Amino acid sequence: ARHVKGKAIADSDALDVLWAKREELDKLDMHPLVRRTLEQAFTIA
């Protein structure tokens, strides 16, 4: 995954964007399955 000034960019893999704020994740145009995985991770965390 690549990061620019501390923010995850769109092609980052799921594990590397887990730290990002929900608002930042909402700005990314993610594949629905990736989004669901992230949402599940937020629920677990």
Number of strands: 2
Biggest sheet character? 2 strands, antiparallel
Which spans have pLDDT < 50 for at least 5 consecutive residues? none
Series of secondary-structure elements, N-terminal to C-terminal: EEHHH
What's the shape?
A: flat
> Radius of gyration, rounded?
10 Å
Helical proportion?
A: 40-55%
Question: Average pLDDT value?
Answer: 64
Count of domain modules? 1
Distance between the termini: 21 Å
> What structural category characterises the helix and strand content?
mainly alpha
Bin the strand percentage.
5-15%
The strand order across the widest sheet is 1-2
Helix count, per DSSP? 3
Describe the structure.
With 45 residues, the chain is mainly alpha-helical. It has one domain (3-44). Helices cover 51% and strands 9% of the residues. The chain contains three helices and two strands. It has a two-stranded antiparallel ribbon with strand order 1-2. A hairpin with a 2-residue loop joins strand 1 and strand 2 (7-8).
Task: State the gist of this model.
It contains three helices and two strands, in the order ββααα.
SSE layout and pairings?
Layout: E1 3-4, E2 7-8, H1 14-17, H2 22-27, H3 32-44
Antiparallel strand pairs: 1-2
Tag the structure with descriptive keywords.
mainly alpha, two-stranded antiparallel sheet, 9% strand
